[in-house]
From TrEMBL:
The keyword Ion transport applies. One of its GO terms (molecular function) is oxalate transmembrane transporter activity. One of its GO terms (biological process) is nitrate transmembrane transport. InterPro entries: SLC26A/SulP_dom (IPR011547), SLC26A/SulP_fam (IPR001902), STAS_dom (IPR002645), STAS_dom_sf (IPR036513). This is Anion exchange transporter.
Length: 664
């Protein structure tokens, strides 16, 4: 009997845990997003714009690959590999359709810290070119790329571990001001690291706390060693790049294909340097020999992983946060969704797999992603097409880049960071919306400048959480008196039946980055239920007051939402008297709610708004200036709805207005 029971229990256990075919297919589609969109790819509509975008992206990938490899203190050819393999892996596992993964300035700068610390420049004279080495490079170059590869591999392992631990859902603590300040500060570091190339100076590698200031101190102390030829060529390159890119931006609607100024500048500078022999005549530093082909894959060196843990964590966190911000921005712009946790897996595998092919750490870059926007890319096919052209460069065109001046390459890096550097303009926005977020931005930027990007990111997150914890105890619940006043005025003033349904939702808590997404989701669920309703008109008058209590932890509704007919025009009144405080994320989410509801033909009115909330929303978003949005009370908002309907001969009747309380 005992054996029979064990056998029966074993059979039941095996039956319970046997995966079904549909479960496997669903899992594969969830973890391999390419299986979701590739079978439905429209060749006729999408192939041409994706091809054009892919060609333009390849130009950026090649130029930035060379530049960011130099920034990472490795041979430029490894930047070409870093522009190829991560893009392929992300196209398979990533969910951002307009995210261009490859070499990235911030991860390259972090990787350079490990490279320069473990394989410093002063041991270069002790190594010689080796015929047995990969691609004929010197042992010194191979030692350096091994360190960068170790950083990439371990950073990818950390990202995959975070995926397994489901930490993607915790990224809401990294707010927009923190990301903006961190990326701006890191971009400032990158520009500083290129000063020696822009000026044609010989400078030792300087890093560590306050290294930013030590670099400029060294420059001013050795100002006489600046090469005038390099400085003039750098200034000319920057002016040409900025001018042409601005013209491309101005006339992008009139011209189908923008001028690839980066490629044109590289060809022109290389040709001019070759013809005039600038390397020997003026002493300009050039890129040098670019080997052809791709070496055989090789496992990263495991013996130095313990020495690069700090940089690996920096690459994992900074690269992911910057990439996720771009993916979320593209998803919001083009109306699709992404899984924050899946992005951990996509970028982790991009770093792990690519590390076997001598690739430096990778992430999505703002300039390349913006390029996909402007050229009309539809899917990740654009990135895959760009990989074809990168391969052509690796196998055929690479050696022709020998004469490319390093000062021109540095100019391309600096101009490519324009999108990050102009985020200084966000300071005005944060000051007008929420001065505490302004303070967080400034302090995060200062910490990033004084220390490093990962330190600035950590400080910004800790500072944000501490401020919210300090502000939450002041939160007050909604005053019942206001609701009773509203009910009294509705019942006495509205005495006719109407086809318009009014939803009154009171927000009982502060609206900050911690609950902004939850607030948006709950509110959209209410509106979607309204649109899906088929309730007859006669049933509307039978609606009674009900309360919707959405807890922050589970988001379940305790009561069902009253429904209206699909043909009715719905008005939504948000009672903001429960707002004790808000931040930039909360204001941006309110504006997003307003714009989304406007697209659904739902009128949104806000009552009991403070002057700071009105100022913040007005400054942040393009709100409808023709219709009043902000009202002193819920009663005033309802009176406005009543008066606006009077002109159409639709008067309010004895209709009970469902009141909802939304605890975000």
């Amino acid at each position: 009997m005992t054996g029979a029971k064990k056998k029966k229990k074993s059979m039941l256990w095996g039956k319970m845990h046997t995966p079904q075919c549909e479960d496997i297919i669903q899992w594969c589609r969830r973890r391999l997003p390419i299986l979701d969109w590739a079978p439905h790819y429209n060749l006729k509509e999408n192939l041409l714009p994706d091809t054009v975008s892919g060609i333009m992206l390849a130009v950026q990938q090649v130029t930035q690959g060379l530049a960011f490899a130099v920034l990472s203190s490795v041979h430029p050819v490894f930047g070409l590999y870093g522009s190829l393999f991560p893009a392929i892996i992300y196209a398979i596992f990533g969910m951002g359709r307009h995210v261009a993964t490859g070499t990235f300035a911030l991860t390259s700068l972090i990787s350079a810290n490990a490279v320069e610390r473990i394989v410093p420049q002063n041991i270069q004279n002790l190594t010689t070119p080796s015929n047995t080495s990969v691609l004929g490079l010197s042992d010194f170059e191979m030692q350096r790329i091994h360190v960068a590869v170790a950083v990439s591999f371990l950073g990818g392992v950390i990202q995959v571990a975070m995926f397994v631990l489901q930490l993607g859902s915790a990224t809401f603590v990294v707010t927009e001001p923190v990301i903006s300040a961190m990326t701006t500060g890191a971009a400032t570091h990158v520009v500083t690291s290129q000063v020696k190339y822009l000026l044609g100076m010989k400078m030792p590698y300087i890093s560590g706390p306050l290294g930013f200031f030590y670099i400029y101190a060294y420059v001013f102390e050795n100002i006489k060693s600046v090469r005038l030829e390099a400085l003039l060529l750098s200034l000319l390159s920057i002016v040409v790049l900025v001018l042409v890119k601005e013209l491309n931006e101005q006339f992008k609607r009139k011209i189908k294909v923008v001028l690839p100024v980066d490629l044109v500048l590289i060809i022109a500078a290389s040709f001019a340097c070759y013809c005039t022999n600038m390397e020997n005549t003026y002493g300009l530093e050039v890129v040098g020999h670019i080997p052809q082909g791709i070496p055989s894959p090789r496992a990263p060196p495991m013996n130095i992983l313990s020495a690069v843990i700090t940089e690996a964590f920096g690459v994992a966190l900074v690269g992911y946060v910057a990439s996720l911000a771009l993916a979320q921005g593209s998803a919001k712009k083009f109306k699709y969704s992404i899984d924050d946790n899946q992005e951990f897996l996509a970028h982790g595998l991009s770093n792990i797999v690519s590390s076997f092919f001598f690739c430096i750490p990778s992430a999505a870059a703002m300039g390349r992603t913006a390029g996909l926007y402007s050229t009309g890319a539809k899917t990740q096919v654009a990135c895959l097409i760009s990989c074809i052209f990168v391969l052509i460069v690796i196998y055929a065109i690479g050696p022709l880049l020998y004469w490319l001046p390093m000062c021109v390459l540095a100019s391309i890096i600096v101009v490519g960071l324009k999108g990050m550097l102009i985020q200084f303009r966000d300071l005005k926005k944060y000051w007008n919306v929420d001065k505490i977020d302004w303070g967080i931005w400034v302090s995060t930027y200062v910490f990033t400048i004084c220390f490093a990007a990962n330190v600035g990111l950590l400080f910004g997150v800790v500072c944000t959480i501490a401020i919210v914890i300090g502000r939450f105890p002041r939160a007050m619940t909604l005053s019942i008196k206001n609701m009773k006043e509203m009910e009294f005025k509705v019942k006495t003033e509205m005495d006719s039946e109407t086809l318009q349904q009014v939803k009154i939702i009171s927000i009982n808590n502060p609206l900050v980055f911690l609950n902004a997404k939850k607030f948006y989701t709950d509110l959209m669920n209410i509106i979607q239920k309204e649109n899906a309703c088929n309730q007859p008109l006669d049933d509307i008058s039978k609606c009674e007051q009900n309360t919707l209590l959405n807890s922050l932890s589970n988001g379940n509704c305790n009561e069902e939402v009253s429904q209206s007919c699909p043909n009715e025009k719905c008005s939504l009144i948000l009672d903001c008297s429960g707002f004790t405080f808000f931040d930039y994320s909360g204001v941006s989410m309110l504006v997003e709610v307003y714009m989304d509801c406007k697209g659904r033909s739902v009128d949104v009115l806000l009552a009991h708004c403070t002057a700071s909330l009105i100022k913040g929303m007005t400054y942040y978003g393009n709100l409808d200036s023709e219709k009043p949005i902000f009202f002193e009370s819920v009663s005033a908002a309802i009176s406005h709805i009543h008066s606006s309907k009077a002109s159409d001969k639709l008067l309010f009747g004895n209709l009970d207005f469902p009141t909802m309380s939304l605890l975000s």
